[in-house]
Amino acid sequence: MDKGYKVYGTFRRASSPNFWRLQSLDIYDRVSLVPADLLDMGSLMEAIKVSDPEEIYNLGAASYVSTAFEQPVGNAEITGIAVTKLLEAVRFFNQRIKFYQASSSEMYGNNSMKIQNEETPFMPSSPYAISKLYAHWITNIYRQSYNMFAVTGILFNHESPLRGLEFVSRKITNGVAEIHLGLKNELVLGNLDAMRDWGYTPEYVEAMYLMLQNVKPETFVVSTGEPHTVRDFVKLAFELVGLDWKKYVKTDKRFFRPLDVDYLCGDCKKAKKLLSWEPRVKFEQLVKIMLEEDTRRWKLFLEGKSFPWDAPLYPGELNIITRLSRENKLSKSRKR
Questions:
Q1: Residue-number span of the structural domain to which 34 is assigned
Q2: What element of type H or E holds 126?
């Protein structure tokens, strides 16, 4: 919008609409909303026909990796196959539309490389990752087959205060804010040793935009090149509020993935060279930004003020029953 774009956003009709992020950014009334569903090609074609876009950014996916193990077929259809539907709709209506596909660092999986770039072999380790890989390759195939301006951005973890509470970064900052304000006394997490390349979402979205302004369509890695463990994230967040993380953090096997990715770290030299893009917000600043915003929200909540926010409506994860949580409970009962 700041670039003078007329922005259309697709949304999936639901019994409980959720636009809190647009509202919190104070842009809800500035976005033209178009109903669409990634499982329904007709609705995708209608969305393109109604908006008549110059650029399409496909950020739609079932993006929570752990859920992909619970719903692998749906994840394949939403995150993977739906991209073919979108590309077909573009090919049918207007092949001059520039198309951005959100690929993921999860596609690299547990490969042996200590830093991943555009040439690193993929080794997906989850239904989500293999679905993203399908979407990644089908986008490249359409680019080569039909001379479409279709790009893929392999983005490593990108975080902000708008991140969903099911994701570990926001789960940490929201939990630490609650503990700091005396609203809870523990934070339950999964694998603390998983190492990720954490960046700041607004900067990564700028990289997406730059990819579609590039002279030719290509694949780009977007990352910081600095790996940190989940434990590092936890420790820093607690330090920022003057608390010892070891007194409050517990681990639970139900929050471990069936097959986890141990290490991801990206090399964005190509983006630096061709897009003149590089990350500015470092890890410590990112954690501080997220923690301060979650703390601010909880303070407003305690004051009884109304504002768009997800935390009060989010179900307690320990109450959600999955195969992993059930097996964990059975294991504990047997030990007793």
A1: 8-329
A2: none
pTM: 0.91
Q: Is residue 244 part of a domain?
A: yes
- 106 tagged catalytic: yes
Clarify whether 278 is annotated catalytic.
no
Q: Please state, in angstroms and rounded to a whole number, the distance separating the CA atoms of residues 336 and 332.
A: 7
What is the C-alpha to C-alpha distance for residues 302 and 285, in angstroms, rounded to an integer?
26
Measure the CA–CA gap between 293 and 162, rounded to whole angstroms. 10
User: Which CATH number does the domain housing residue 103 bear?
Assistant: 3.40.50.720
State the number of CA atoms in the 13 A half-sphere of 211 facing the CB: 31
Strand segments (E) across 105-217? 150-155, 158-159, 187-189, 195-197, 199-200
**Residue 123 maps to a domain:** yes
Rounded to whole angstroms, the Cα distance separating 32 from 104 reads 27
Give the count of beta carbons closer than 10 Å to the beta carbon of residue 142. Answer: 22
Q: Residue 324: is its pLDDT beyond 60?
A: no
| CA gap 275, 295 in Å, rounded | 35
Question: How many structural domains is the chain composed of?
Answer: 1
Q: Which of 57, 100, 128, 200 is catalytic?
A: 128
Task: Choose the catalytic residue: 43, 63, 66, 104.
Answer: 104
**Tens digits of residue pLDDT in 325-336:** 555 555 555 555
Largest distance between two CA atoms of the chain: 65
Radius of gyration for the alpha carbons in the chain, expressed in angstroms and rounded: 20
Reduced to 3 states (helix: H, G, I; strand: E, B; else coil), residue 78 is helix
Provide DSSP, 293-326: HHHHHHHHHHTT-----SGGGSPPGGG---HHHH
For 319, counting Cβ atoms within 10 Å of its Cβ (0-12 exposed, 13-18 middle, 19+ buried), the class is: exposed
> Token pair for residue 188?
């339950």
Inside any domain, residue 261:
yes
Question: pLDDT-derived band of residue 70, with 50, 70 and 90 as boundaries?
Answer: confident
Residues 54, 97: Cα–Cα separation, whole Å = 5
Give the active site residue among 66, 103, 106, 159: 106
Closest alpha carbon to 14 in 43, 36, 39, 41: 36
Is residue 327 annotated as a catalytic residue, yes or no?
Answer: no
